[in-house]
Design brief:
By secondary structure, the chain is an alpha/beta fold. The protein has helices at about 50-55, 95-105, 110-120, 140-150, 170-185, 195-200, 220-225, 230-235, and strands spanning about 10-20, 25-35, 40, 65-70, 80-85, 155-160, 185-190, 205-210, 210-220. The chain contains 8 helices and 9 strands.
Length: about 240
């Protein structure tokens, strides 16, 4: 069973800002992502959710401030993985996509066949290994993207809007995978526009607005007794501008 590594967690942002083309996308953020249940980022479009995920993953560097992983800076993200909202499928079978990810993760060739089947089962794609990845449905492709990400046995898994545009059945399948990997000790950090999903999955809800986390609390507390006016309005479906 996988556990959160001291070398990856906590992920700490210290007064971190990100500016692109003169626009401040993240504004002096200070927060910590520790081991435990999923951290779910919610907020309006343009709040900075995707950029925060990319920063915490290590794909981009802060313009100001710093990010540390387990107390260290500039740590190669060998045990972190990310799935984007629209993952690109390689021109090969579903199993071939996973084999490619296993090879990239330096998994020994003799172990790959068993690992492919294990990952297909984990994400609910048993029996679909020979199907061309690009012929899978949108929900199946997203689960295949999760399998590829899990091939490197990450300790932290970042998900950017993993169920956007999926129907309820496909959404449930993704949420089931998230619950399973959480039970295996993998820290999930995800963004979503679906408040129902945030309530179902979130251990900690982080409400973002204008590049800042303006409220952070356990899901039960956030949805029953939000501390901020913005939180109350957001839950009520009002537009935050």
């Amino acid at each position: 069973m996988m556990r959160a590594s001291v070398f990856d967690l906590p992920i700490v942002l210290e007064d971190a800002s990100f500016v692109a083309r003169g626009v401040t996308i993240l504004d002096s953020l200070s927060l910590a992502l520790a081991a435990g249940p999923p951290a779910v980022l919610v907020g309006p479009n343009g709040a900075g959710k995707t950029t925060l995920i990319r920063l915490a993953m290590g794909l981009v560097a802060p313009t100001r401030g710093r990010v540390t992983w387990g107390g260290r800076e500039n740590v190669t993200p060998t045990r972190r993985a990310i799935v984007f909202q629209r993952p690109v499928m390689r021109r090969r079978s579903a199993a071939g996509n996973i084999r490619y990810a296993l090879a990239a993760a330096d998994v020994p060739r003799v172990a790959r066949a068993a690992r492919v089947e294990e990952l297909l089962t984990l994400v609910g794609l048993t029996g679909l290994g020979d199907r061309p990845a690009r012929k899978l449905s949108g929900g199946e492709q997203q689960r295949l993207a999760l399998a590829r990400a899990l091939a490197k046995e990450p300790r932290v898994l970042f998900l950017d809007e993993p169920t956007a545009s999926l129907d309820p059945a496909a959404t449930k399948a993704i949420e089931d995978v998230i619950r399973t990997v959480t039970m295996r000790g993998i820290k999930v950090v995800m963004s979503t526009h679906d408040l129902g999903e945030a309530k179902r999955l979130g251990g900690e809800i982080m409400l973002m607005h204008r590049g800042r986390v303006i409220e952070s609390s356990p899901a039960e507390t956030f949805f029953s007794a939000p501390r901020t006016e913005e939180g109350r309005r957001f839950i009520d479906g009002e537009l935050l501008v």
